[in-house]
Structures are given as C-alpha cells and as structure tokens.
Amino acid sequence: MYLGIDIGASFCKAVVIDKNINVLQTARKRMPNPIETESFKLVEYDINKIINLVFDLIKSINNKFTKTIDGIGIAGQMHGVLLVDQSNKPITNFVSWQDQRTNELLPKSQTTYLNYLKDNLQKYRPVTGTDLRSGMMGPLLFWFLKKGYLNSNAKVKVTFLSDFIVSVLTENEPLCDSTNASGSGIYNIKDREWLNEYFEITGIDYNILPNVVETKSLAGKLTSSLSKELNLKQGLPVYVSIGDYQAALLSSNLGDKHISINVGTGAQVSLLIKHYVNTENYEIRPYINNTFLKCVSGLPGGRLLGVFEIFIKNILREFSFSVRKLDILSELDNICLKTISDTDIVCNPNSFNDKIDSYSSFLNITKSNFNINELYFSLIKGCVQKYFDSFNKIKKQTTNCIDYKILLTGGVIKKSQLMKNLIIDKFHFDVLFSEYEEEAAVGAALIAIQD
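^ that's the sequence the OP posted. Answer follows.
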C-alpha cells in the first residue's frame, strides 16, 4: 500500500491506495490560517503549524493500513517558499504564492522588485515557459536579498513547501523535481537547469537553490523517530514531491488526446505535448516522463466563486439570517439546473484577486434578469467561456483536435453540475471525468509506486 499527501492551499489531504490504485482511505484537514500582519501584501503561514498538521493527518490513517504502507509520495502548491538554515531549520515562515510583497517599490527606485526582474531578465520567458509573478521563488528571493536575509554570513537554502515536508520526514536536504522547480519562474525547463541570467543580475548565490532531480526520485527514508511517532514502518521510502497540478493529471490518466480542464482554487486548461516549444501565448510546464504541458493558468475558479458566495452571505447576515450551515453555491447550482437554460447577462469574471480590473463586469443587466440566480448562472458561464478561449489559444499549433476528449478534474468541477453541463455544451467534445475525489493526493501516491 502507498500513502499520498497533497499539501494544498485550502486543505491538506491524504489517501492510501493499493498497487491496483484502489483508494482504501482518504483524510483531509483544513490548512491553518495565514499569520495576521499589518500589510495585506504579506501572506505568510506558520511552518510549524503546517508540519504538525501533516503529522496529525498521517496519524489519522487507520492503524490497519499504516504498518502496510510501502512508500510515501507528496504533492503540493508549486509557488511560495521558505528559507532554512544549514541544519534544515526554518528561518522564515512559509511565504505563500498569494504574497504580494514583490510588488513593493525597490528602495530609491520607481520600479517594483518584480518589474525590475522582468525588465532586466531578457531571456527568461523563452526557456522558463512562464512569466514571473509576485509569489514565485525568483522574485521572493530577490526581495529577501534586498532585505538582508541572504547576507554572506548566513548560509541558507530556499525550498518549496512540499519539498520541505519531504526533508522533514527524511532529515535530508530539500530537493525538488522539475515540476516544482518550474514554479520558481527562474528554472530553464528547456535545458533543465536554473536560469544563469538570474544569478548574474541579482548577485544571488546559485548554491542557495535546491538540487533538481528526476521526478519519482527517492528523497530518502523516513526517520526512525518519525516511524515510531507516525506508526509507520521503519525505513519507509519517501519520494521527491511533485507539483499538485501535475499530480492531479497523473491520477486522471492524462493522454495526448485530452483537453485538460482543471478547476480548483484557480483553473487551468492544458494539452500534453512531447517536446518543448517556445511561445509567448501560453505557459509551458514540465510533466512526467520528460513531456510537457501547454497550459493557460490563472483562470477563474473556486476562489472567484468563493468571493461571490461571501457577497451573498454578507447580504443575508445584514438581515440577521444564519448562514453557518448554508451551502449557497450548491443551492444556486441546483436551482439554475432546474429553472434556467441561459441568460442575457454577460459576466467577465476577472475579479478573483485584489487588483482593479476594468474588464471585470456583469453586462446586459435588465429589470427582468437582475436576480441572484441569473447572476450566478452568468458567472459560471463566464468562467466556461474563459476556458474555451484558453483552449482555442493553445490548440493553434495542434493539427487535429476532432478526436480529442475533455478531461475534467478539480474539486469545483466535481461540485458544480452546472459547470459540467455548460462545458459540455460549449466544447462539443466527449467528456471524461477523474474517478478520484482527491486527485492530487492519489497522484502523489502513484509517485511512490516504483516500476
């Protein structure tokens, strides 16, 4: 049997599977809240709380399974970082991918930390396959440097969250594979090395970054003390973590004739390709077995729907209604399925972060359609339109899509039948669904099944 753990943004999830990929047990715990700070730009989490949460999650696994587990695989959010010392002890909190500190102005400058890198790194986009964003390792390390965290006397390492958890379990130095490294914004996925130009421009020591190893590589063995504490076998192999997006696609059997639409906290649309391509139109991400994904990411998903849900709940609270046990989105989904076939309201769903976006809007509102059901319908419809536009963007170099099938994954897809129906109506392809509830955790467990 094999244990898979997915350290997500909202929940930490675990599954136990057998060698035939039957799920024997699932468990989940909500991730801790971010640390309260005076600045909305800083989004940090207490790393010790996350470690303890992972341990508690493992301890919740039924005892009849724990002693039969033969390997551990881990997946996790690919952006955000923390710094550790020579003894692998954290010297920062976990800085989340939602963090905005690199949008601050550089001292004595009119440009931000992030834009400084974008302006000076001339060659990064063609080889990293992605643009730089505020919560990525590259910009965050630059901020740490300028704030004095990386002075010459402090020998530190930077690591991703899931890779750090692997290192805690094994007491080995943090490693990473290419799926996580690509989330840094400074990893050359074409040549499979860190971006040399970044170190030349910033002056950051190359050795601060983790070593990149092959996906499915053995990271080490579970320590003796943790074997006892977690009731797991002595010397249990623990494998290098994988990006949660890739893990979800792995468990869903992504193939080269699939249009992947993954809708979780955010959403992504992607196609599998065998060789790297250079493009400015969409992202290229590493996948397993030296293949790649053409991907449009950062699309509206669960986070946007959550904003809409909060809006409705706040209205209800104003009139003293209890909303604690009310699943508003599910109720709206069911109502729309029964009563609405379409709406004239047009939603441009870009308002899923704190940035002002002039394209975020509800249009064509009239006296007859201005109601909560049609607003929700238009919101889901607008999301689906984004997914469709993204597919058209990445399919241009694909010669024939006529025999493709849509592969739907992600928690929001599973929950919203309305979204499923609108995707089917919009794309006119046959549809496949992932059979697993905790897709990324199952994908992590699959990493532990070695051929």
